[in-house]
Design goal:
Elements: E1 2-5, E2 15-23, H1 29-37, H2 42-50, E3 59-63, E4 70-79, H3 86-102, E5 107-111, H4 119-134, H5 146-152, E6 158-161, H6 167-188, H7 196-209, E7 214-219, H8 221-226, H9 230-236, E8 244-252, E9 257-269, H10 290-305, E10 310-321, E11 333-335, E12 341-343, H11 351-364, E13 369-374, H12 378-384, E14 388-393, H13 396-409, E15 412-415, E16 433-434, H14 442-451, E17 460-464, E18 470-471, E19 481-482, H15 487-496
Parallel strand pairs: 1-6, 2-4, 2-5, 5-6, 9-10, 9-13, 12-16, 13-17, 14-15
Antiparallel strand pairs: 3-4, 7-8, 8-10, 11-12, 14-17, 18-19
The structure holds ligand BES, manganese (II) ion and zinc ion.
Length: about 500
């Protein structure tokens, strides 16, 4: 499927489906005129029959009679312009793509009002919505029979954004979507495919694609041991797969702003000896590396965009949380690389143990800011639901930058408190502290645990993305499986920090 900007308007286009994005209320004059003069009042009929009012998530479409140069026409509601966000356009593009494929259209034109009077951003978000909707993950399906191909394959071949010169913005959308799709596919692939070694290879491939921009180092078990990463290695020790500590560095410019992004990279989380039981979602725990996937997705996009004056460290402590005779016992005490001792009262609170050593590693690089992202707690999903991530930060300016980046990306975050008194619940009789607190405020105590490993860096943010990285249902521009969240937020944030 190809997307391009074309300068002609809706009157000078011919093809399978013309889509108008319209706000709620009366249809604009140019739509009404087009309908009367070219479309034989098809739109007026569709609107009346379906009581279409231009609300968000509403759409109508149908066949144009006679021998019109336009075979089908569709209206997609954008709702109240005062409430519009970038995601309104992405989701509208998603509706158009889904409808066009259902109607077996090959060519589609989008005639949309500008978002925020910004032609480049409008083209970018329409293209993002279309590309992400069109992405279907068929890697693990057997090849369809030749005769079934026609009905299984999406029909759309070209999308033209009308009255637009924003081809560069569309190319940018393609680059960003490639990063989102990389993350989606890493998350959706099962744990027997995406192993710690596979994550390491992915980082190496990114570095190889842009050798002038990246360096990469993969620390093996022995090297992690030498660095005293007892928390990370404790989690990894029951698995038959070798852990990989991934350090991918992007660098451009002589006096760059130094940043670190850390992604939780559990390629499978069985819970360990505190084994996940029925209804705990163990069968989807291949997605426990979604933080790592988004970290790599972001790295790929940053490599392709090649922004100046930045040094970004992408860090992943990748392993599996398994059971075997070598597994950590509940109650074992692990020593992290900053010397702190941890009583593992729950082996299923493993993400924070791997992140502990990754945070210490990042902290020693003395970056201006550290952002970690992790499918860290079920408690965060209980608190914020499936589509909103949790955001904790020691620095208001960093938190605001992430909130702004997320808003532009159409990815939702809600700031949560670092409520220090709750750390009481992690007190240990025998070690410095435990790795898990009680049932209440579980996402907050997890964040407080991580904070113990950030000692020098004053600007640190933790993103708990357990909910939004995965979806069982098709929704907006997401298809079932990994969503690629929050690659776009990370990219926007990194770009906003360029010196
Ligand atoms: N990977 C899970 C968190 C998770 C749950 C992610 C559901 C996605 C969907 C994490 O390692 C975990 O098991 N957390 C425990 C912590 C508890 C033992 C303190 C949890 O949330 O139950
Ligand atoms: Mn767990
Ligand atoms: Zn986990």
């Amino acid at each position: 499927m190809e997307i391009r900007a074309v300068t002609n308007n809706h009157r000078a286009w011919s093809g399978d489906v013309l889509v108008f994005g319209v706000f709620s209320g009366d249809l604009p004059t140019y739509v009404l005129e087009m309908d009367r003069e070219v479309l034989g009042d098809t739109i007026a009929e569709l609107v009346a029959e379906n009581k279409f009012k231009g609300e968000v998530n509403s759409a109508v479409g149908g066949r144009v009679g006679g021998n019109s140069p336009i075979k089908k026409v569709m209206l997609v509601g954008l709702g109240d312009p005062a409430k519009a966000t970038t995601d309104t356009w992405r989701r509208a593009a998603a509706q158009a793509v889904r409808w066009a494929n259902q109607a077996r259209c090959k060519t589609m034109a989008l005639s949309f009002p500008l978002f925020n009077a910004d032609a480049d951003l409008t083209a970018q978000i329409l293209a993002e919505g279309a590309i992400l909707t069109a992405h279907q993950d068929k890697r693990f399906k057997s090849k369809p029979k030749e005769e079934d191909k026609e009905k299984n394959e999406p029909s759309l071949e070209t999308i033209e954004i009308l009255e637009s010169q924003a081809q560069a913005a569309i190319e940018r959308a393609k680059v960003i979507c490639n990063g989102v799709i990389l993350a989606r596919e890493l998350v959706s692939a099962p744990a027997n495919v995406v192993t710690p070694a596979k994550l390491a290879e992915t980082a190496q491939e990114i570095a190889k694609t842009y050798p002038d921009r990246f360096t990469v180092e993969i620390l093996e078990r022995e090297q992690c041991q030498a660095l005293g990463m007892g928390a990370f290695l404790g989690v990894a020790q029951a698995s038959d797969l070798e852990p990989k500590f991934i350090h991918l560095t992007y660098k451009q410019g002589d006096n760059p702003t130094k940043l670190a992004i850390i992604g939780k990279g559990l390629t499978f989380d069985s819970g360990g000896l505190n084994l996940k039981t029925g209804n705990s979602g163990i069968e989807t725990m291949k997605m426990d590396m979604a933080g790592a996937a988004a970290t790599l997705g972001c790295a790929q996009v940053i490599g392709a965009l090649n922004p100046p004056n930045l040094e970004v460290h992408f860090i992943i402590a990748a392993c599996e949380n398994m059971i075997s005779g070598r597994a950590i016992h509940p109650g074992d005490i692990l020593t992290a690389s900053n010397g702190k001792t941890i009583e593992v009262n729950n082996t299923d609170a493993e993400g924070r143990l791997t992140l502990a050593d990754a945070l210490v590693f990042a902290d020693r690089l003395e970056p201006k800011a550290i952002v970690d992202l992790a499918t860290l707690t079920g408690a965060c999903i209980v608190a914020l639901g499936e589509s909103i991530g949790g955001l904790w930060s020691t620095d208001d300016e960093l938190a605001q930058k992430i909130e702004t980046s997320a808003k532009l990306a159409g990815e939702k975050f809600w700031r949560m408190p670092l409520e220090e008194p709750y750390f009481e619940g992690m007190k240990s009789m025998i070690a410095d502290f435990k790795n898990a607190g009680g049932r209440y405020g579980g996402a907050i105590t997890a964040a407080l645990f991580l904070k113990q490993f950030v000692e020098k860096t004053t600007a640190w943010a933790h993103l708990d993305v357990a909910g939004p990285v995965w979806t069982e249902k098709e929704s907006g521009y997401n298809n079932p499986g990994g969503t690629g969240y929050p690659v776009r937020t990370l990219v926007n944030w990194v770009l906003s920090m360029a010196a």
